[in-house]
Design brief:
With about 550 residues, the chain is mostly beta strands. The two termini are about 30 Å apart.
Length: about 550
């Protein structure tokens, strides 16, 4: 599209659920016309009960400014940043925050915010590695403490600004030191050293929300931290579950969902009421997965439904055949028949769970270009996947894929797919990462261009990382409009709306990441008085007018 067209003033007018259903003919060519009952079902199944309304903003231009730049009429409040005290106990907000998820206490005015913390930093957190090559015990403890997640209570004051409530009875940290229990096939198995309980969670990237009101957090690039801390790396790389409101809910790792470099977990229901979890594996030449529970979801069981994630079938997508291939020990052993070494490696379902990436490729899962965030459309139950990039295949700017499950059933074992949007100069974005939807059917995506490549070479056109709105309905379907630009060397992550969409929470991760000397900072965001370093933080964006 032309530059003029891509920058034109963007106006969306809400027309109600029924009209959105009719407008679904404007979706990708492969998506069949949806019926009203399908939209109602999606709204009910996924808890998507936001009002349908209009949203107006003028897209911004790319910029290399060291700030979070938003369209005119919008503002942001820094709710919490690295090192801020979050409760009376003195716990502090962790480093490099990622996924956010808002749990309302009083609608859009007060709630709990779960925030992931993905990785630490020699320069800004725990200090450089000593000459002997091994971090000290104190450094390791600080490294582990500043990863995991933060549960913070946030509220909107009389002036309309969002703030942190440090007197919260709920606020606490879940860290690399917190005890976790294992569930599922790998629990107590030889593949995890016989462990039924393990230490901590770290490398927490994106996540998801269960139908019973808990948070799922995804352990992604866990290898370096587990090695540095002297921990068994088979205890990491899982989807973990936590209840922000209940400290007595035992944090757990669900091994039935497989172990790999998890980006997120998108939860839905099959047509026969079983729980589905879609997941991406954030590395080059990795697969897209979904898990289907053995038993059915019963709303009245409440938090007891967590056991649905302990037993079921994990599948990998074969995009060549359009089939979900089961990752069962029987399938894997059949695939490696005649290979003594692999037969020795894969003896039980626990082995399949622990070595999931390898097992998926063996049974025919399609290696793709860094499948990161996966989200289910609340309007038509199609599944969107952000493939960030893969320079091994010449895919430098990435793309967003859309899966269409047969019969619009998330429990289907066959699917079709299309490329919904491609990164590049023509679209205005590069390296799509986290995804979320608003009630207009717009897909919001943030970008993850490497901080070392920003504003250079083929990435010059895009300036800093950003956030984009891509309609999935109507005449602008697939067209990207820039809503935000990140501070220098930062990545925007974890977009999460409040129920009525008056506020968007967003993480600002690793500002000034390329800094080598504290006396020569490349970023000073969030520009707080007295700060001597850039601080990752979570912001609340307001100004949405409907």
């Amino acid at each position: 599209m032309s530059e003029l067209n891509r920058r034109k003033f963007l106006t969306y007018v809400g027309t109600g659920v029924g009209a959105l259903t009719v407008a679904s003919t404007g979706l990708g060519a492969m998506v069949p016309k949806a019926e009203a009952k399908g939209v109602e079902a999606a709204s009910h199944l996924f808890g998507f009960q936001k009002k349908i309304s209009g949203l107006n903003f003028k897209p911004i231009d790319p910029t290399d400014k060291d700030d979070l730049v938003l369209p005119r009429g919008y503002k942001y409040d820094v709710v919490a940043a690295y090192g801020d005290v979050i409760n009376k106990k003195g716990d502090t907000f962790g480093f490099n925050n990622d996924f956010t998820l808002y749990f309302p206490i009083d609608g859009d005015k007060r709630g709990l915010l779960w925030v992931n913390h993905e990785y630490s930093s020699d320069l800004f957190v725990h200090g450089a590695r000593p000459a002997n090559g091994k971090y000290s015990a104190a450094q390791i403890q600080k490294m582990l403490y500043n990863q995991g997640g933060s549960i913070i209570e946030v509220y909107r004051d009389k002036e309309g600004s969002w703030k942190l409530d440090t007197n919260s009875k709920y606020a606490r940290r879940i860290t690399g030191l917190t005890p976790f229990q294992l569930t599922g096939p790998a629990k107590g198995s030889k593949a995890v050293g016989g462990a039924t309980n393990v230490q901590g969670t770290f490398a927490n990237c994106s996540g998801g929300k269960t139908l019973w009101g808990t948070v799922l957090s995804a352990e992604e690039n866990f290898e370096s931290t587990s090695k540095d801390a002297g921990l068994n790396d088979a205890h990491y790389g899982w989807i973990v579950e936590i209840d922000p409101f209940d400290p007595n809910f035992k944090p757990r790792k669900h091994t039935a969902l497989g172990r790999f470099n998890h980006e997120n977990a998108a939860v839905g229901l099959t047509n026969d009421n079983r729980v589905v979890v879609y997941m991406g594996d954030d590395k080059k030449d990795a697969c897209v997965y979904k898990f289907i529970s053995k038993n059915k979801y019963v709303k009245s069981r409440g938090k007891a439904n967590a056991d649905l994630l302990e037993e079921g079938t994990l599948y990998a997508a074969n995009m060549g055949s359009g089939k979900w291939v089961p990752l069962t020990i029987e399938n894997v052993q059949k695939a490696v028949k005649g290979d003594a070494d692999l037969l020795k490696k894969f003896q039980t379902q626990a082995d399949v769970a622990v070595h999931c990436h390898e097992a998926a490729l063996l049974v025919g899962g399609t290696p793709t270009d860094r499948p990161e965030d996966v989200e289910i459309s609340p309007f038509d139950k199609t599944v969107f996947i952000a493939h960030t990039n893969n320079d091994k295949h010449g895919n430098f700017h990435g793309h967003i894929t859309r899966f269409i499950e047969e019969g619009d059933d998330l429990g289907a074992l066959t699917f079709d797919f299309e490329i919904f949007a491609a990164g590049g100069k023509q679209s205005g974005f590069s390296a799509p990462d986290n995804l979320t939807f608003d009630s207009l059917g717009n897909l919001w995506t943030v970008t993850d261009m490497s901080s070392s490549k920003l504003n250079t070479g083929i990435y010059t056109h895009f300036a800093n990382n950003g956030m984009f709105v891509i309609p999935t309905i109507g005449k602008n379907t697939g067209e990207a409009f820039q809503f935000a630009s990140a501070p220098v060397e930062a990545e925007l992550t974890g977009p999460s709306f409040t129920p009525n969409e008056t506020t968007l929470f967003l993480s600002i991760q690793h500002p000034g990441e390329e800094t080598e000397d504290l006396n020569n900072l490349t970023s000073k965001w969030p520009h707080r008085k007295g700060d001597t370093m850039p601080r990752p933080g979570v912001v609340a964006i307001t100004g949405f007018k409907y």
